[in-house]
Design a protein that fits this description.
Layout lengths: L2 H5 L4 H24 L8 H25 L14 H28 L18 H34 L2 H14 L5 H22 L3 H20 L2
């Protein structure tokens, strides 16, 4: 994947303006979720609906920006080659990423970093068939949207603007982690590390399919599986 080949249609000034507008849209809600950690919880259906709407809107914006720049979906990693193999890889990577994330989270908490705040309970849906279906839809939408946003679009644009793929990966992972402020200090660092792992898979495979499958299964384990075990 040649970042400059995809980004060459836009001038540097256009890239900076586009990136600035996108960050203006995405960062404030993420910061709000960080500040709101520990405050009164909202209902799961309301939270799920708002999250789905927000993520769908951001993906639509990315598609619009790509269209304006005459860039294909392949520019952000949505390619159709060897989909079955990429899905299988995403499934296979889930267990090691999950075990690594849990080990890191435990180590960080043992070192004194905070865990999830009281409002994090709102992220787990109440029992019920309707809530279970909504939770699965939420997990699927979030996985596709967040990989499109943080691994696909932001890495592409940051790499082009900063002339550094390493910084692009680091910054996109940091922004990704900010939206998980409700998980406390340990959660922030763990999510950031998970973002780095997903970015490494994306750059390795030059496709968002495997990281999206892994992301979906990680969230499924965190949100849906506890529901089934109640």
């Amino acid at each position: 994947m040649n970042d400059r080949a995809f980004a060459g249609i836009l001038s540097r000034r256009q890239e900076l303006a586009e990136l600035g507008v996108f960050l203006l849209l995405v960062v404030p809600p993420l910061v709000f979720s960080f500040v709101a950690a520990g405050r009164a919880a909202v209902s799961f259906p309301l939270l799920a609906g708002a999250t789905i709407a927000r993520d769908a809107g951001l993906v639509a914006l990315i598609l619009l920006l790509l269209s304006r720049a005459r860039q294909p979906l392949a520019a952000i990693g949505w390619v159709g080659r060897a989909v079955g193999r990429e899905v299988a890889l995403g499934v296979a990577l889930t267990a090691p990423v999950l075990v690594g994330a849990q080990a890191l989270d435990a180590a960080l908490r043992a070192a004194g970093l905070s865990g999830p705040g009281p409002s994090s309970a709102a992220l787990l849906p109440p029992p019920g068939t309707g809530e279970l279906i909504l939770a699965v839809v939420l997990v699927a939408v979030v996985a596709v949207a967040e990989e499109t946003i943080f691994r696909g679009y932001l890495i592409l644009r940051f790499a082009s603007v900063l002339r550094s793929r390493g910084w692009a990966v680091l910054l996109s992972s940091m922004i990704f982690s900010v939206g998980h402020g409700y998980e406390g200090g340990a959660g922030l660092l763990t999510v950031g590390a998970t973002g780095l792992a997903l970015a490494a898979v994306y750059l390795w495979r030059r496709s968002l399919v495997a990281p999206t499958v892994t992301h979906f299964l990680l969230d499924l384990v965190a949100i849906v599986v506890p529901l089934l075990l109640r």
